[in-house]
Design brief:
By secondary structure, this protein is of the alpha+beta class. It has helices at 2-12, 54-63, 121-126, and strands at 43-48, 68-77, 80-89, 92-101, 104-114, 134-140, 146-151, 161-166, 169-172.
Length: 179
C-alpha cells in the first residue's frame, strides 16, 4: 500500500525530491522523481516593526494579545496582498499571515516551526520514510485546519510536501496551498 500511495503522490507532482528519492518506496527496480512545485511569483517588501501599518498591527494584536512584533513582509502575489508578521508570544516564535480583503486585513494563517518528531502521528504516517529538514505548522484561521509544510534539503522556498489535517483526517495536498 505504501508503494501505491507514494506512487500516486509522485504522479501528482507534489513531492519534490531535492535530497529525497522515492527509489526505496516504489516497486522493485523502478525509481521515480517529480519536479518541485513552483512557488508563485511574489514581490516582497521587508517592513520594520515600527513601519507596520496600524491597521495590520491592530489585527495581529487582537488575534494574539501580548505578541511582540519583530518584523514583517508585505507580499504581493497572484493579485493578493499579504502581510507576514513575525514576532514572539510567551517566548515562542510565531508568524501571522494577514490577507488584505475589501473589509480590511484578516488573519488567514498562524504559523510556527516545529520538529518533525512533534508532528502528529497521522501526518508522519502519510510519509513514513520522509525526513523533512524543516516543518511549518500552519493553522488556518477560517476553519482550524492545519497545514504541515514539509521542506526538503536544498529547497527552502517552497514546501516539498504539504499535508492538511482537517476534521481529524490527514491528506497530502495535490496543489500548493494558496496562502
Amino acid at each position: 500500500m505504501k508503494s501505491l500511495f507514494l506512487s500516486a503522490v509522485v504522479a501528482t507532482g507534489v513531492i519534490a525530491p531535492a535530497a529525497f528519492t522515492l527509489a526505496a518506496c516504489t516497486p522493485a527496480g523502478q525509481t521515480s522523481e517529480a519536479e518541485a512545485p513552483k512557488a508563485p511569483v511574489t514581490d516582497i517588501t521587508p517592513t520594520a516593526a515600527a513601519d507596520i501599518p496600524e491597521a495590520v498591527r491592530a489585527v495581529v494584536l487582537a488575534a494574539r494579545p501580548g505578541m511582540v512584533i519583530s518584523e514583517a513582509e508585505l507580499k504581493e502575489r497572484e493579485g493578493r496582498r499579504y502581510y507576514d508578521v513575525e514576532g514572539a508570544l510567551n517566548g515562542a516564535e510565531i508568524e501571522l499571515d494577514l490577507l488584505e480583503t475589501p473589509q480590511g486585513w484578516k488573519v488567514v494563517e498562524i504559523q510556527r516551526d516545529i520538529a518533525w518528531a512533534d508532528a502528529p502521528a497521522d501526518v508522519k504516517a502519510m510519509l513514513p520514510d520522509y525526513r523533512p529538514v524543516r516543518v511549518i505548522e500552519s493553522t488556518q484561521a477560517e476553519d482550524g485546519a492545519v497545514i504541515y509544510e514539509l521542506f526538503a534539503e536544498g529547497q527552502p522556498a517552497t514546501p516539498a510536501v504539504e499535508v492538511m489535517v482537517k476534521d481529524g483526517k490527514a491528506a497530502i495536498l495535490k496543489e500548493v496551498w494558496p496562502h
